[in-house]
From TrEMBL:
SMART domains: acidPPc (SM00014). GO terms for cellular component: endoplasmic reticulum membrane. Residues 94-218 form the Phosphatidic acid phosphatase type 2/haloperoxidase domain. It comes from the Eukaryota. Belongs to the type 2 lipid phosphate phosphatase family. It is found in: Endoplasmic reticulum membrane. GO terms for molecular function: sphingosine-1-phosphate phosphatase activity. This is Phosphatidic acid phosphatase type 2/haloperoxidase domain-containing protein. Gene3D superfamilies: Phosphatidic acid phosphatase type 2/haloperoxidase (1.20.144.10).
Length: 408
C-alpha cells in the first residue's frame, strides 16, 4: 500500500483545488476572457486579408499535401503512434512523449476555451476539412493552433532525445536536425493558414506556447520520469491530479470538443503512469530489447504490432462497456447527480429540458465537491477517462505480458 502523500504532492493538489474554488466563485475565467478575447478577435479579423492572399495559390495538390501533413501531426496520429514506440523498446522516449502530449493537449485546449476566440470566418476564407477529424477540429476555438503547438513540442523533444541517445557532438548533424524541425513547424503553420483553419495570430500563439512548454519540459522531464518509474504515491497522486484537472478546466463560451480531447488524453497519461509504475523493472527498463537489434528484429516487431493492436482495441471496447455499466451505479450509490451527453440514453436530457430522475439525487460526496458549483456531472467524462486509461494501461502492462508469454 502506498504511503501518505509527500508534502510537495499535497501542495500541488491543494493549489489546484484552491484555483478551482477561486475561479468558480470569483468568475476568473470570464474576467480573463473579457481582457483577452476582444484583442484576439480584432487580430483574427485583421488577418483575413493575409489568409486570402495565401489562398490565391490554392490547387488540388496543395490541398492534399497540407491536409495529409496535418493528419500526420494530429492527436489521433500520435495516439496510434505512441503504442508502437513503447513496443519498440524505447520506453523512456514513449512515456515522455505521451506525458508531454497530454500536457500540451491540456494547456493548449485550456487557452482555447478560456479565450474562446473563433477561427477565421468562412466565407470569405475557404476552409478545407478533408477528414472527419478535421471537421471536428473546426468546431474548436482557434487560439492557439494545437497542430503548431504540438509539432513544436514533440518534434523538438524528439530531436533532443535522438541527439542525446546517439551522443552526437557533430555540429553539422545538429544543425541538420534543427533545420528539419524548423521546416516541419513552418510547413505546419503555413498549412493551417492555407487550409483556412487558423489565422496568423493562432499560429504565432501556438509557436509561442509551444516553445514555452518545450523549454519548461526540458527542465523537468528527468525529474518527472524519475518520479514515474521509481517515486512514491505515483498512482494515487496522478489519479488525484487527473481528477482535479478535470474541474480546473475553464468553461468555454460555447461547448466545443476540446474538453473531450483533453479528457481522453488525460486518461491515456493516467493509464501509462499506472502501468509503467507497476511493470517498469519487468518491461520498461533501459536494458529491454530495442528494435533494429538482433534481440528485436523487424519480423518479431511486426508480430508485436499485430498482437498489440488487436489486444488494445479489445481492451478499449471492454473498458468502455464496463465503465458505462459501473459508473452510473457508483454515482447513484454515492448520491452524485449525473447526466449523459451521448453514452447512456436514459441519462440524456430530453428536448424539453427535463432532467433524468438520477440527476435529482444528492449525497455527501456531492457536498464534498461544493467548490465545483455544478448541479450535475456528465458521466460521459468519467466513461471516456476510464476507457482511455484502460487502453493505455494495456499498452504498457497487459500487452508486454502477452509478448513475454508468446516470446515476442
Amino acid at each position: 500500500m502506498e504511503s501518505i502523500l509527500a508534502g510537495w504532492q499535497v501542495t500541488i493538489l491543494c493549489g489546484i483545488a484552491c484555483w478551482i474554488y477561486a475561479s468558480s466563485f470569483l468568475h476568473l475565467t470570464q474576467k480573463l476572457r473579457s481582457l483577452t478575447q476582444p484583442w484576439v478577435l480584432a487580430r483574427v479579423r485583421s488577418d483575413i486579408p493575409i489568409i486570402l492572399a495565401i489562398q490565391r495559390y490554392q490547387n488540388g495538390a496543395l490541398d492534399a499535401f497540407f491536409s495529409a501533413l496535418s493528419c500526420f501531426v494530429s492527436v489521433p496520429f500520435y495516439t496510434a503512434f505512441l503504442p508502437l514506440l513503447f513496443w519498440s523498446g524505447h520506453g523512456k522516449l514513449a512515456r515522455q512523449m505521451t506525458l508531454l502530449m497530454a500536457f500540451c493537449d491540456y494547456m493548449g485546449n485550456c487557452v482555447k476555451d478560456l479565450v474562446s476566440a473563433p477561427r477565421p470566418e468562412s466565407p470569405p476564407v475557404r476552409r478545407v476539412t478533408a477528414t472527419e477529424d478535421e471537421k471536428e477540429n473546426a468546431l474548436e476555438y482557434g487560439l492557439p493552433s494545437s497542430h503548431t503547438l504540438n509539432t513544436v513540442c514533440l518534434s523538438g523533444y524528439l530531436l533532443h532525445y535522438v541527439l542525446s541517445y546517439i551522443q552526437c557532438k557533430d555540429a553539422s548533424i545538429q544543425i541538420a536536425g534543427f533545420a528539419i524541425v524548423f521546416l516541419l513547424v513552418g510547413l505546419i503553420g503555413c498549412g493551417r493558414i492555407y487550409l483556412g483553419m487558423h489565422s496568423l495570430i493562432d499560429v504565432i500563439g501556438g509557436l509561442g506556447f509551444g516553445l514555452t512548454i518545450l523549454t519548461f519540459w526540458l527542465l523537468v522531464h528527468e525529474y518527472i520520469d524519475s518520479f514515474v518509474v521509481s517515486g512514491h504515491n505515483v498512482t494515487s497522486f496522478w489519479s488525484a491530479l487527473t481528477f482535479l484537472l478535470l474541474f480546473a478546466y475553464p468553461k468555454p463560451e460555447n461547448p466545443t470538443p476540446s474538453f473531450e480531447y483533453h479528457t481522453a488524453f488525460s486518461g491515456v497519461a493516467l493509464g501509462i503512469v499506472a502501468g509503467v509504475q507497476q511493470t517498469y523493472h519487468q518491461f520498461h527498463h533501459e536494458s529491454v530489447p530495442r528494435i533494429f537489434t538482433s534481440q528485436l528484429s523487424i519480423p518479431l516487431y511486426a508480430g508485436r504490432v499485430v498482437v498489440g493492436i488487436s489486444t488494445i482495441l479489445l481492451v478499449k471496447f471492454c473498458s468502455k462497456t464496463i465503465a458505462k455499466w459501473t459508473l452510473p451505479i457508483s454515482a447513484n450509490a454515492l448520491g452524485i447527480p449525473i447526466r449523459s451527453t451521448n453514452y447512456i440514453p436514459a441519462l440524456v436530457y430530453s428536448p424539453t429540458g427535463k432532467k433524468p430522475a438520477e440527476a435529482k439525487q444528492t449525497g455527501y460526496l456531492q457536498k464534498l465537491l461544493f467548490f465545483v458549483n455544478q448541479d450535475s456531472f456528465d458521466v460521459d467524462t468519467g466513461i471516456r477517462l476510464v476507457q482511455y486509461a484502460g487502453l493505455a494501461w494495456s499498452v504498457v502492462d497487459l500487452v508486454p505480458s502477452l509478448f513475454s508469454h508468446l516470446r515476442l
